[in-house]
Structure formats: C-alpha cells, structure tokens
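step: validate -> pass
step: tokenize input -> pass
step: predict -> running
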Amino acid sequence: MKHQEVPVPFCDKCAFETGAIFRHLGHEEADIINFEKEFRQFRRGELLYNEGSRISGFYCIHKGIIKVFKTGLDGKEQIIRFAKPGDIIAYRSVLSNEVACTSARVIEDSQVCFIPAEILISLVKSNSTFAHELLKLACHELGEANSFITDIAQKTVRERLAEILLLLVEDFGLDEQDYLQISLTREELANIVGTATESVIRLLSEFKSDRLVELNGRKIKILNKKGLEKISNVFN
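step: predict -> pass
step: emit ->
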C-alpha cells in the first residue's frame, strides 16, 4: 500500500507546535534543515534503523510514536524510551560518530524528518544555544537511564509496572474516558518493565481486580492514579 501524500512540515512552525529542539534555531538555520531534510512516512512495525548499523543522520518525529530499544542475547527487546512528536532520536550516534547503540521501530503510524549528520554537527559548532539545549537533552536522557537501572535493582516488578503506567500517563496523557493515549501490547509493556510477558498479564489482572485499571484489549483505563502512585513508591 502506498503512503498518502502529505505536506512536508516546516521546521520552524513544527518546532514551536511540538516543543522540538529546533525552536532554538534562527530562520536561516531552519531554512537549511527544511532544504536538506528528507520527509519520511512509516507504518506500525516498520524499522527506522537497527542497532549496530552506521547511520548517516538522525530523526525528528513529526507525528506518531516510535519505540527505541536494545536487543538482548536471547533476542528479547528492552524498550529504552518512546519518541513522540517533537522528539529526536539517533542524535547521540551522530555526535559520537559511532554505530547505532539502539534500534527504533514504529508502534503508531509515523511521519518523521531525516536530517543529515553534517547538519547537526554544523549547528552544534555555530549555535551555542542549540548546543546547550542538546547537551541538556542528552543529560536528561542519561538521568532517565540511571533511574531505570536503579528501579530494576531495587523495585519489584509490581512497583515498576505501576510506575511505568504513571510515566505513560505523564508522557502521553489520557483521553476523555481516562484511557492511556498510547496503545501497547502486553509484550511491549513487559519490555519496558524488564520482565516476562506472563508477569505483566498477571499483574494487570491484579490491578484490574483492585480497581486500579480497566482493560479493553490493548487499551488501559486508569481508574485510581493515587493507588498506582502508592504501589510504585514514586514519591517515597
């Protein structure tokens, strides 16, 4: 099936709508990206890049959701984060001139802009505000990784699942009926928590029995946010 033709977004307009890091660019710098970038569309399940591959640029998400993950020796995925509109991915591999340390796969039909590596390097050298914001972004992601490592070591699977549900609420919000505005398989949830799919299925069933959530296929309705906060020990 062919992708429907859609207008290519302009970086300056898109950046202010989504909060993307490109809002720190001047008009001429934004024009350079608009001219050099490639606008691409992906369907759910498609791969943007693979761990260990050499990539020649990075991606800015305009629409949709993309999971960034690593693959273990047993082939099991460990989801690192979800990229949503305004986020950039693969930029660290560009800055370090190393092969990709993660893979990225679409979980919700997406529109992304692929920006050549030399553009990012040039902006870092010429725009100190942009470089500073990029550094802050990298530090924030490193902090999240450190928190995840601590959770894996110190929290139970039940606590981690409750915390992940709260983080998904924070990142993607709830619809008018209090359903999470991101649809994930049980396996994907398990790959975020860092446990077996069977454990997530059992715990979600327990959460449902405890009137913390309501389940409708992949959709999860949050019934008791305070209860999830208590289980997760987020604020302890």
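step: describe -> The domain at 11-152 is CATH 2.60.120.10 (Jelly Rolls).
step: cleanup -> pass
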